[in-house]
Amino acid sequence: MIKKGLLKGHAQVFNVMLRVIDLAAVFVCGMVAYYFSAAYSTYTATGVHGVPPHYLKVILLAVVIVALLFPLFNIYRVWRGTSTLSEIKYLTMSWVMVGLLLATLAFATKSGADFSRSWMGLWFVSAWVSLITFRVVLRMALNWLRSSGFNHRHIVIVGTGEQAAVVAERLRHSTWFGLEISALYGSDTEKLPDWLKGKKLINDVAELRRYVDKGDVDQVWISLPHSEEKIIRKVLLALDGVEAGIRYVPDIFEYQLMHHSLSEIAGVPVVNISYSAIDGMNEIIKNCEDYILSAVLLIMASPLMLVLAVGVKMSSPGPVLYRQRRVGWNGKKFTMYKFRTMPIETEKESGPIWASSVDNRATRFGSFLRKTSLDELPQLFNVLQGKMSLIGPRPERPHFVEKYKNEVPHYNKKHLVKAGLTGWAQVHGWRGNTCLHTRIEHDLYYIENWSLWLDIKIIFMTIFRGLVHKNAY
Fold it and tell me: Coiled coil where (predicted)?
């Protein structure tokens, strides 16, 4: 049986093991790539296990570069609390840097012609895939262990007010981080949820120091509002020199800044209240992504779209496409395309209706299109037109925009970017007749934290769990 905290006492061993596996993956992929590329070549050479000496030297050089470069990119930092997407991003950057260094050396020594291009390409791709696959699998295993109650870190939360309660709830529902609250420092427990009231309560700084010094506490999280500055200073002074890590949770709750991103400008931390990361070069990258992928997807989906068009035509009289005015980027209206799912006169009779599971206006075939999200496919034409993006907040009708922009905080900020076919909110289940406040929170997170990696993640999440969903109607 695995004991709680099994990995805690072997962090250094785990770190060394990770480094060795990375180096082994680079070496083995280089060797195997040569065997595969040589199988399609008439060239034969002698060397270590059939690999020519100059190939072997480059492979070993890459191993040395990885050993020196990866730590500089924080590849072996503590994983707890960091995302898989962030790990993949830094790992890719590091491996690309290794490739660029090797290419520069080959150019400088005029030795590039001595190596097979197929070998170089196969080695580069296979090693990258191996490094990422190993980490993803390992993270999944660690997350499962932590969710099952193993490999936990024990923390003390300084604070018992509303802010501390929110932090505690977040940690409680993020079991894969493996952070377990063992005690609280404070006196007023009125605002704490019932499950927290059973935790050890400390109300004296001397007792807090003794409790932390016992060695069972890994981290202390100070979660107090700015108005409690004296208590914060008192706690920091009392905990000076303890072995446990100390973290401060900024007072971002009072101003509803919980879901806004943080940046550092000239060494000054700032909260991005109304900000889009899709700007400048990022906007160019995203536009290229939209045009290329939408064109490819249209070509791939054209046979299916033809079949669906016939199905729509047979289900009820009227046009195949349904055109509807929506609000997009900068609040501008545009015509959005969908496969028609209702009889042509239906909406003229009912007027605009918010999507719900009890909407029985759709035809039988139209209901199928809605449940599988296939009715959205024509919006690929909107993406090619530049009116929409593949990924972004879903566009809404002018009637509902006018209704909700004054009812839902920050609703209009979703129009800082182009509307999308799918989005961060949709892949998390916030679609259809679900909480609009939470949906907007997810939209704002995407807008402020956009990256190419995040788009790739959303695309894969859409494929595996976003197309057919209980809230798709």
Answer: none
Integer Cα distance of 441 and 435 in angstroms: 10
- In angstroms, the first-to-last Cα distance of the chain is 46
Q: Calculate the alpha carbon distances from 119 to 26, 65, 122, 151, 165 in Å.
A: 13, 19, 5, 41, 56
Question: Which pair of tokens denotes residue 393?
Answer: 């907040």
Domain count, the chain: 3
Task: State whether 186 and 104 are in the same domain.
Answer: no
Closest residue by Cα to residue 340 from 313, 306, 379, 302 = 313
Are 66 and 19 within 8 A, CB to CB? no
Distance between CA atoms of residues 376 and 242, nearest Å: 57
Any idea what the CATH number is for the domain that residue 158 is in?
Answer: 3.40.50.720
How far is it, in rounded angstroms, from Cα 374 to Cα 308? 8
Q: What is the CA radius of gyration of the chain?
A: 28
pLDDT at residue 294 in the model: 92
Rounded Cα distance between 443 and 422, Å, is 11
Q: Does 314 map to a domain?
A: yes
CA-CA distance, 314 to 448, in Å (whole number)? Answer: 44
Q: What are the tens digits of pLDDT across the range 8-42? A: 545 677 778 889 999 999 999 999 999 888 766 54
Element containing residue 264 per DSSP (H, E): strand 262-265
How many Å is the maximal CA-CA distance in the chain? 81
CB of 24 within 8 A of CB of 16?
A: no
Task: Domain of residue 230: give its range.
Answer: 153-254
* Whole-number pLDDT of residue 262: 66
CA-to-CA separations, 76 to 27, 67, 80, 135, in angstroms, rounded: 19, 11, 12, 11
Are 468 and 373 within 8 A, CB to CB? yes
CA distance 337 to 385: 11
Residues 158 and 290 placed together within one structural domain of the fold: no
Degrees to nearest 5, angle at CA 222 with 82 and 214: 90
List pLDDT tens digits, range 292-349: 999 999 999 999 999 999 999 998 888 999 999 999 998 999 999 999 988 877 766 6
Based on the domain organization, do 287 and 236 belong to the same domain?
A: no
Which value, to the nearest 10 degrees, does the dihedral of the CA atoms of residues 238, 241, 247, 251 take?
A: 30
In degrees rounded to 5, what are phi and psi of residue 463? -65, -45
Q: CB of 156 within 8 A of CB of 184?
A: yes
In sequence order, the 6+-apart residues with CB closer than 8 A to the CB of 421 are 376, 379, 380, 383, 388, 389, 390, 391
Judge contact between 454 and 278, C-beta under 8 A. Answer: no
